[in-house]
């Protein structure tokens, strides 16, 4: 079974600075999707960014970018120019692309604090 | 707004009781997923339905059951409730089997407190 590990339970960053959240995963599959979801205090799960494993180019969405290292099974999230509204729990998630269920497997999350 | 609707938002009940959580997926989505998020934990996958049929099952307790109705809404039934069942229960939906984007769209969750 696939597993997702987020080794940083908590991180903090100064407003306008850059922070990187780590995620590693374990799988024997070659084709899959990876995601970062944000859960603010409102508890809504919001998709931040998505990466398809077959794409070598790292995904970017405005201030959010990933460093996808397929061989190392690593998928880190970089937040540039951090804003107070970025404060939230961030969850890394894995989804197989090889048929069967489309469920997401989540890590335990990283709580990000943004200091003014 | 993700388009996924969950009711109720909050629920307080006693041990031994039974509750039903309801989920309406986004318009056009055929798959519904249920997740449990306990305090300081990630999201644990419970079960997935696709177009009325069970498609995948996670670590769902025997005291819990779910179904998806012909109109595609889903219900999660939790019975013989225990203190440890207190959690945030999320419903999510997606287009369906093999959806290209892979992402799930989440509702706002139902907060269950068992006293």
Description:
The complex is a heterodimer of chains A (116) and B (115). Chain A is mainly beta and 116 residues long. Chain A contains no helices and twelve strands. In chain A, a hairpin with a 6-residue loop joins strand 5 (32-39) and strand 6. The mean pLDDT of chain A is 94. Chain B is mainly β. Helices cover 0% and strands 50% of the residues of chain B. In chain B, the strands form two sheets. In chain B, strands 2, 4, 5, 6, 9, 10 and 11 form a seven-stranded mixed beta sheet that branches. In chain B, a hairpin with a 2-residue loop joins strand 5 and strand 6 (53-57). Chain B is globular and about 40 Å long. Chains A and B meet through strand 5, strand 6 and strand 11 of A and strand 4, strand 5 and strand 9 of B.
Tags for this model:
heterodimer; A: 116 residues; mainly beta; six-stranded mixed beta sheet; four-stranded antiparallel beta sheet; 12 strands; globular; B: 115 residues
């Amino acid at each position: 079974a696939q597993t997702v590990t987020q080794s940083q339970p908590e991180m903090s960053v100064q407003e306008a600075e850059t922070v990187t959240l780590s995620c590693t995963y374990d799988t024997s599959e070659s084709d899959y999707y990876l995601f970062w979801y944000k859960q603010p205090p409102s508890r809504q799960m919001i998709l931040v960014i998505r990466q398809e494993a077959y794409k070598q180019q790292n995904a970017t969405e405005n201030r959010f970018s990933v460093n996808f290292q397929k061989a190392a099974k690593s998928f880190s999230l970089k937040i540039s120019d951090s804003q107070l509204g970025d404060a939230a729990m961030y969850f890394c998630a894995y989804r197989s692309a090889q048929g069967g269920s489309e469920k997401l497997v989540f890590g335990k999350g990283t709580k990000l604090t943004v200091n003014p | 707004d993700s388009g996924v609707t969950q009711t109720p938002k909050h629920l307080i009940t006693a041990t031994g009781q039974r509750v039903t959580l309801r989920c309406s997926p986004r318009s056009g989505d055929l798959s519904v997923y249920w997740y449990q998020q306990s305090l300081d934990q990630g999201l644990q996958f419970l079960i997935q339905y696709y177009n009325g049929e069970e498609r995948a099952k996670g670590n769902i307790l025997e005291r819990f059951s779910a179904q998806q109705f012909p109109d595609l809404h889903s219900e999660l039934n939790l019975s013989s409730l225990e203190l440890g069942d207190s959690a945030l229960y999320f419903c999510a939906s997606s287009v369906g089997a093999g959806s290209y984007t892979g992402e799930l769209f989440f509702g706002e969750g139902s907060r269950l407190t068992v006293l």
